[in-house]
Specification:
- The structure holds two protein chains of two kinds.
- Chain A has a single domain, classed as MetI-like (MetI-like fold), CATH 1.10.3720.10.
- Helix content of chain A is 72%, strand content 1%.
- Chain A has a two-stranded antiparallel sheet with strand order 1-2.
- In chain A, α3 packs antiparallel against α10 and α12 runs antiparallel to α13.
- The longest helix of chain A has 38 residues.
- Chain B has one domain: Orthogonal Bundle (MetI-like fold).
- In chain B, 78% of the residues lie in helices and 0% in strands.
- By secondary structure, chain B is an all-alpha fold.
- Chain B is built from twelve helices and no strands.
- Chains A and B meet through α1, α3, α4, α5 and α6 of A and α1, α4, α5, α6 and α7 of B.
């Protein structure tokens, strides 16, 4: 990639065209080499590891088992539980984030004196570290001293304190609520950008024709922001599926397996049992499942870029 | 005459917006209030809502009795290192992708886009094995490299669109005047792309500062960034929420302030896609 030195400078112009043809590759080389080393090489390693029985604390570790880990996976009830949770996790979090984000964006798109300030403040959750968010919500959800129970008791919505994160039936939904809170500003900001791209004249024409606000929303606003919704939605599905730091800090996957998602299960297997072979097999399976959504996103983005 | 419409605006816009802002800010404000309430009072009567009950007690304990300042330094080294490495290799790559048409260009762009979508869990396990093999475990460099897995593809895509917006005729004019390609890049394109480079750098800094799972897995003893250190503030017998909240506020502050500083310009770039988080 870096053979820029002219080998036989008989013909100067030929050397020059060769140089200019190699130029982009030379400029790309550092970035490509670094990503090969820190992304693609480890990834190949991961696929290889998934065919081995590799437990880090066992003395003569590393035994080739072929598809052994994957067959084990199919018979592992926790894998299926985690897969189900991952589906609920994505299926609830992304639409909730999008809905809340849409409401926020529509409001922030209206005219009011402190609009700039409001737009800046609404993004705060997005900039906070996941660990801080997770700990903050653990404090809010705390069964004895948490503020959420206090508020709900005061409003008499509940009659006794609820152990949000310790109840296996509630824990997953409590974490989903936290992730919704963390992610809705992203949608709000993206949708806001989409809203600003809709020409005002369309609304004026519609109101002259006597279209109601609702009809204007359905026929002008929604089509106008549809591309943004699709792009942001795809990005979020991928991101939410991958995200496990908030669950890990809030519940560690518990109580029991109540908040296990696939990436978290892989991480816990490797981190706590040091079972790297099985852990990477789960991770690889998860990546393949996610691959379909990633493919749709990539086709869309590449098409847009080349336009 | 203006009154009814103002009232209407307040009812239909201002009040709902206040609700949204309260929803977005509420938990963070609650954490700030918690951090200002001394621990003894926190367990006796809960979070203090009035300034009379506030004190800097938790913050003083945080700075005096824990290694939090050292952890901030670790985070700073890692985040700054990621920015330097990420930008250094990405600027030339982005320039090449935006200015040249060559065989394999699409493949390279696809590769950088794809990398951003990889589940972190797929990379974290082999990176741990790799870092252990080459003896980088628990060093700043290990975390800088790990964070670069996110930073480099992101930076290449962001900078490609910033540089793409600079007219080609400018570097062509410089080259007619006798500049080489690299001189044109350095003297013409780089200064013009500087706002984009700075906001990309700041975004990398924020994500690297906030990163948790790599820090937990590849760091830990000698190198312990803020995100990992905050968890160690949980007390031995009962959770010290006051101290924890103070750590959370201090740990979140640098990234949040930087974010507010550049949010307007960042959002323009972010809506172009290819972004994690």
């Amino acid at each position: 990639m870096s053979t820029l030195a002219p080998s036989a400078p008989h013909d100067l112009t030929q050397v020059r065209t060769l140089r200019s043809r190699l130029m982009p590759y030379a400029l790309l080389a550092p970035a490509v080499l670094v990503t090969l080393f820190i992304v693609f090489f480890p990834m190949v390693q991961a696929v290889v590891t998934s065919f081995y029985d590799l437990v880090l604390w066992k003395p003569n570790a590393s035994r080739f088992v072929g598809f052994g880990n994957y067959i084990k996976l199919l018979h592992d009830p926790v894998f299926w539980i985690s897969l189900g949770h991952t589906a609920i996790w994505i299926g609830l979090t992304v639409p909730l984030q999008m809905g809340l984000g849409l409401v926020a964006a529509l409001l922030l798109n209206r005219e009011f004196p402190w609009r700039g300030l409001a737009r800046a403040l609404v993004i705060i959750p997005w900039a906070l570290p996941s660990v801080v968010i997770a700990l903050m919500w653990r404090w809010i959800y705390d069964p004895t001293t948490g503020v959420l129970n206090d508020i709900l008791l005061y409003l008499s919505i509940i009659h006794s304190t609820v152990p949000w994160l310790a109840d296996p039936h509630l824990a997953l939904y409590a974490v989903i609520a936290t992730l919704t809170w963390q992610g809705f500003p992203f949608f709000a900001v993206m949708i806001l950008a989409g809203l600003q791209g809709i020409p005002q004249s369309q609304y004026e024409a519609a109101s002259i024709d006597g279209a109601s606000t609702w009809r204007q929303f359905v026929h002008i606003t929604l089509p106008g922001i549809a591309p943004v919704l699709a792009t942001a939605g795809l990005l979020r599905i991928i991101w939410v599926a991958n995200s496990m730091d908030v669950i890990f800090v809030m519940t560690g996957g518990g109580p029991g397996y109540a908040t296990h998602t696939l990436p978290l299960y892989a991480f816990i297997k490797a981190r706590q049992n040091l079972d790297f072979g099985y852990g990477t097999a789960i991770a690889v399976t998860f990546t393949i499942l996610l691959g379909a959504i990633v493919a749709v996103y990539i086709v869309r983005t590449m098409r847009e870029v080349e336009r | 005459m203006n009154k009814p419409s103002t009232l209407r605006r307040i009812l239909t816009t201002d009040i709902p917006v206040v609700f949204i802002i309260m929803l977005a800010m509420g938990p963070f404000v609650w954490m700030i209030l918690t951090s200002l309430t001394p621990t003894a009072q926190l367990s006796a009567s809960g979070v203090s809502l009035s300034p009379a009950g506030w004190s800097m007690d938790n913050y003083i304990r945080l700075l005096e009795q824990t290694s939090f300042l050292g952890n901030m330094l670790d985070s700073l080294i890692i985040a700054a290192g990621t920015v330097v490495l990420g930008l250094a290799v990405s600027i030339t790559a982005a320039y090449a992708l935006s200015r040249f048409r060559f065989p394999g260009r699409k493949l390279v762009m696809l590769q950088f886009l794809l990398v951003n979508m990889f589940p972190i869990v797929l990379l974290i396990l082999p990176l741990f094995i790799l870092m252990r093999k080459i003896g980088l475990l628990d060093t700043h460099l290990a975390l800088i490299l790990a964070n670069s897995t996110v930073a480099i593809p992101f930076a290449v895509w962001m900078l490609r669109s910033y540089i793409g917006a600079i007219p080609r005729s400018l570097d062509e004019a410089a080259m007619i005047d006798g500049c080489s390609r690299l001189q044109a890049l350095r003297r013409v394109v780089l200064p013009l792309a500087m706002p984009g480079i700075i906001s990309t750098g700041i975004y990398i800094f924020i994500t690297a500062w906030n990163e948790y799972l790599y820090a937990l897995t590849l760091g830990g003893r000698n190198v312990r960034p803020v995100t990992v250190a905050i968890q160690t503030l949980i007390g031995e017998y009962q959770i010290e929420w006051g101290l924890l909240a103070a750590g959370g506020v201090v740990g979140a502050l640098p990234a949040t302030l930087l974010f507010l500083l550049v949010q307007r310009r960042l959002i323009g770039g972010l809506t172009q896609g290819a972004v994690k988080g």
